[in-house]
Amino acid sequence: MEDWNELRLVLAIQRGGGLTAASAALGIDHSTAFRRLKALEAQLGVRLFERLPGGVYQPTEAGARIAAGAERMEDEFLALGRDVVGGDHRLSGRLRVTSSETLAYSQLTAHLAAFRRAHPGIVVELSIDNRVLSLSRREADIALRPVRPKEGDLWGRKLAGVAWALYAAPAYVEAHGGVPKSGKLDGHALIGWDEAASGIRAAEWLAQSAAPSAVVYRTNSLVNQLIAARAGVGLALLPCYLGDDDPGVVRAAARPVAELEGELWIVTHADLRKTARVRAFFDLVGAGLANQADLFEGRRSGRAIV
């Protein structure tokens, strides 16, 4: 095996579980990935993947060994890249940032505009993705995350707590009343996530607090849930930094939901923490978001009709 791309292909198929995900990750078409895998297996004289129903590719022992070796090589390559970038003292170049849809929609963009004015030589690439992208694999240089990082090679700080509350259009609350202090949602039309949502604390809380029949509108986008609440569809459970800052909705319950208190973190890889453009982003954007802690934590005087 003389071509690094052969190793990358095996690793991508193992990570993605099939050719479709691997071809997307590598930027090649499905037929090219298939031909390259067949050629590699013929060259080595060994089968690297078992083809299972549904297009699933399960690595054989040989395939798993090659993928493990490719991952070690990738780790070394990425570490070398981080080492070089980590010593970059220029306030110029590309900076890849990842954020959730709600943060980008409501608060982040204004801080990015201020960052651009202060550092016009830095090109910010914002990836709006609710998944946790890998900073070790350089899928992003900086992440704004709703959870404390667990990986030991990451470095960052907590910017604020994050509170959640129930919101609706003023006309809806005036017509149907607010949520009583008991927290019961009886009689209210609810806006929620699609039924396939899993691992979302707010979605789980809503499912435990009301019957499925109470949910009259479902969407996997919190921004669209806000828009639906603004249009009078019903109550939406939203982070306070999204709901309290929107003039089209009010709190249907004065207090945030205590069980859903979360956090907002700004994180980078430890190897990049001294890079000039990373430090500049932490200092300007990170500090700007931290200064809004009252909004994130639901302590700003919100409009409520209860």
UniProtKB/TrEMBL annotation:
- Gene3D superfamilies per the record? 3.40.190.290, Winged helix-like DNA-binding domain superfamily/Winged helix DNA-binding domain (1.10.10.10)
Domain of life, per the record?
Answer: Bacteria
Per UniProt, the keywords (alphabetical) are: DNA-binding, Transcription, Transcription regulation
- One annotated GO biological process: DNA-templated transcription
Which InterPro entries has this protein been placed in? LysR-type_TF_proteobact-type, LysR_HTH_N, LysR_subst-bd, WH-like_DNA-bd_sf, WH_DNA-bd_sf
Q: Name one GO molecular function term.
A: DNA-binding transcription factor activity
Domain HTH lysR-type, chain residue ranges per copy: 1-60
Q: Which family does it belong to?
A: Belongs to the LysR transcriptional regulatory family.
Q: What is this protein called?
A: LysR family transcriptional regulator
The protein's organism comes out as Caballeronia arvi
